[in-house]
Amino acid sequence: MEELQEQELKIEDARTRLGELVLAKGFNMQDAELILLSDEMNRLIADFEKAKQVCIMRRRLYGKTEDLTPTKV
Predict the structure, then answer these.
(1) Which helix (H) or strand (E) holds 53?
(2) pTM for the whole thing?
(3) pLDDT tens across 22-31, in order?
(4) All residues at 6 or more sequence positions from 71 whose CB lies less than 8 Å from its CB, including other chains
């Protein structure tokens, strides 16, 4: 669960940076820096969703008393 919280913080940080960069670049969504940061955020979200699914499956398999920390996916 700690890893999920860490990933959520990274996503929120990327979202904040992306919003600030969009404003700074005047909403130019063709800017290479914006595209790279957007891609990074999408990757972080995909990784988070995979890790969350692992936790859900572990909870179903082992019950709520087991360690639900996801392994690297």
Answers:
(1) helix 32-62
(2) 0.73
(3) 999 998 989 9
(4) 54
